[in-house]
């Protein structure tokens, strides 16, 4: 019975270690590179698997680690960057529009303050030379 159980346990350890190694992200393999770990496990089947579990395997399990790793993205692929870029563009356009309106208002106030403002007709309602001015009738 022991002659059957021991080889089966050794085979299970080897296969489980090799599958775990293959499924692990190459950037998370500790000690040596992932291809080197594969060679170690094939050359030294049981010892390679034990070494992988003790020295090479990332802590917390291979399945949990890739989800926590976030690679840098290019600015044009990052939705947050694009959203902020659009917001900044709108804010800048609004600020430019408000500045232009303020400059126009300041210019008109200076004209009125200097007395060189646009000439207006009589404000008392007197008739001017143009009989159609100030009437709402349609001819």
State the main characteristics.
5 helices, rod-shaped
Assign the structural class, choosing from mainly alpha, mainly beta, alpha/beta, alpha+beta, or little secondary structure. mainly alpha
Q: What percent of residues adopt helix (DSSP H or I)?
A: 55-70%
How much is the radius of gyration in Å? 40 Å
Overall residue-averaged pLDDT value: 79
Based on Cα principal axes, name the global outline. Answer: rod-shaped
Count of alpha and pi helical runs: 5
Largest sheet: none
- Beta strand %: under 5%
Question: What's the order of the H and E elements?
Answer: HHHHH
Uncertain segments of ≥5 residues (pLDDT<50)? 62-66
Secondary structure elements and their pairing?
Elements: H1 2-23, H2 34-43, H3 45-56, H4 64-68, H5 79-114
Helix pairs in contact: 1-2, 1-3, 2-3
């Amino acid at each position: 019975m022991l002659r059957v159980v021991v080889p089966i346990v050794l085979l299970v350890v080897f296969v489980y270690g090799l599958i775990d190694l293959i499924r692990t992200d190459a950037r998370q393999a500790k000690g040596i590179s992932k291809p080197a770990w594969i060679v170690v496990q094939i050359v030294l089947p049981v010892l390679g698997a034990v070494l992988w579990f003790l020295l090479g395997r990332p802590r917390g399990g291979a399945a949990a680690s890739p989800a926590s790793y976030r690679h840098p993205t290019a600015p044009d692929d990052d939705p947050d960057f694009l959203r902020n870029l659009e917001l900044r563009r709108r804010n800048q356009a609004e600020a430019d529009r408000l500045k232009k309106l303020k400059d126009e208002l300041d210019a008109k106030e200076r004209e009125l303050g200097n007395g060189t403002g646009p000439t207006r007709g009589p404000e008392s309602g007197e008739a001017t030379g143009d009989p159609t001015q100030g009437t709402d009738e349609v001819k």
